[in-house]
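Internal ticket #5521
Category: modeling
Description: The requester needs a full-assembly model to guide mutagenesis choices. All entity lines are attached below as received. Residue total reported by intake: 743.
Assigned to: D.W.
Attached entities:
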Amino acid sequence: MKKAIASIAFGLMAAGLITTGASAQATLASVKQKGYLTCGANTGLAGFGLPDAQGNWTGLDIDFCRAIAAAIFDDPTKVRFIPLAAKDRFTALQSGEVDVLSRNSTVTMSRDTQLGLDFPAVNYYDGQGFMVRKKLGVSSAKELNGASICTQQGTTTELNLADYFRANNMKYEVVAFATSDETFKAYDAGRCDAFTTDASGLYAERLRASNPDDHIVLPEIISKEPLGPAVRHGDNQWADIVRWTFNAMLNAEELGVTKANVDQMKSSDNPEIKRLLGTEGKFGEAIGLTNDWAYRIIKHIGNYGESFERNVGEGSKLKIKRGQNALWTKGGLQYGLPIR
Amino acid sequence: MGSVNTVVSQASPPKKSFLYDPKVRAVFYQALLVVTVTYLFFQAGTNAYDNLQRAKIASGFGFLETTAGFDISQTLIPYSAAGSSYGDAFLVGLLNTLVVSAIGIVFATVLGFIVGIARLSTNWMVAKVAMVYVELLRNIPLLLQLLFWYIAVLGPLPQPRNSIEMGAGFFLNARGLFMPRPIFASDVAAILAALAIGIVGAVLFRRWARRRQEETGRQYRVGLVTLGLVLGLPVVTWIVLALVSTNPISFDMPRKGTFNLQGGMQILPEFVALLVGLTTYTAAFIAEVVRAGILAVSKGQTEAAGSLGLKPGQTLRLVVVPQAMRVIIPPLTSQYLNLTKNSSLAVAIGYPDLVQVFMGTVLNQTGQAIEVVVITMGVYLTISLVTSFFMNVYNRRMAIVER
């Protein structure tokens, strides 16, 4: 870790030197100049951000980065994914190592206001839960008094855990690891009685257990975890691009525009679709892109619902129900801000 | 003498230009370097500060007083998520680093000396085993060794419900080693007093024995008497107290609870894995240092000792090792520093050392990267300088012994 200390310190210094003079408003310009987007990704979480054996990344958060690349370059492959452990992710974003962090990070007030970050969107509404071995015979998180619990350090999970056990006047022993991989391995090896992270993460990690059926997810959800992409504070144009990329995907789902029918939809008479696909108005130019920015996103990635189904929904191994992540028109929380 | 100097200076060629004076040049280049380095650091500092301002990242060390809000598995000082600050979390991490380093240094030294001496043994088996140990452990990256101890050795231990009972209240399971926790009554002070008396007595006896030996040549059983005084005296006091009044030391025994053993004292597997990994790894290097030191003592010394009638063990203890120590201490110091710094690999196996707690969780929760990194670097620098200072003092004392 000496190396890590040295590299972080050097990185901070270098970042301090390099960005001298250059305006902090220039993420889009630097991305265009590089010719690709650097995206901070998870070190490996099925459904959200996971590289396969060939190094192809897939997941909901990965799709989102590809959507931004599609909007800028009309090419979803112009992204370099940088796997980041939870404890390193914000430093990497602050220091300019990544242009955008799309790595199931919870939006909290302190992160938004004190870390020099902005969270333009929430692409997954989640909550923290617990997973235990079935043979323990535990059916509620309230029965976890005295348990040892594995968690990933540097997360809101770690803080909620302390809050929950304090509020319920229970004792516990925390064992914190740097990456989700190490955390789950320790739990699976029997180091801890329970494993805690966001509920989506529990379902994803359970797939990696030596025998997934031996584990159950307890019913309690102990926190609100709105997960979303983050950008550096101060670059408003870049934040706009990220915010409206997400809203374009939501609106497309709401309007029924899909990867398959987007070309036909271009000739639609619906003014909302026209504005979305850039045949009316100059919404793309207003955020520094071309007017067909949303068309590019949908053409390459599809709408939010398609990405959800493919990565975490019923069509995937995770089989997570839409739940709170359904559109507002279907009783969920996802509400596409109007493009007008 | 003065006159000779004047002659020489008069004989030397006329002084060249001020610019060609090597002394002036040396000072000039040094000054230039200092100015450049200072300027670079100043620029880096102000730029970092400006960028932080622009990004609206609060700076300063005020965050150390903010409530931490997270828990830590091993805390040597009172700590709770509710009441403790980031500053307390820092102290917890620092103490955990110091504890594992200090114990590691002691164990690695003992093991390293044994292996180093064993490698020079005339017994073929012993020498080869020591050689295999050294070559194996120093050539495998430490991180792999830590993961090996943690996952492969300690991981497969049984679950708490099937704990291995080792008797006398000792249990072993995947959550660690559990042992009775002593609870001290007030009259434990008597035992401590006995211990103090024992230590002082032992030191005095050793001095007296050495003086007697120098005067008369008679040897005393210093080791046995020391053991009796330091260990025996407190134990006798304890027994007497227990018989006369109540037992001053009672034990809180680990009991089986819902999930894990309750009560008692728990040694975390993360701690054990880190300690064992650091000890065995560093010991391999220390063994080589010790071997080099012993080989540096000329063979004549051993032969001379032998001709005086000293036994091989005595030769080693009284003649060879004291001379070897002068060669051993400087590289040994480096190994101590390495061990301390390597303890930061703890992060990989979840032991809450300084890097894990402070550079990991605290940095992430506060976002104060620069402050946290600066403090952490400062801590490692301080630990290294202090270790180095004491080893240098020791080295000087050893060096004076030379006759």
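Resolution: model delivered.
Comment from assignee: Chain B touches chain A through 57 residues (CB under 8 Å).
Ticket closed.
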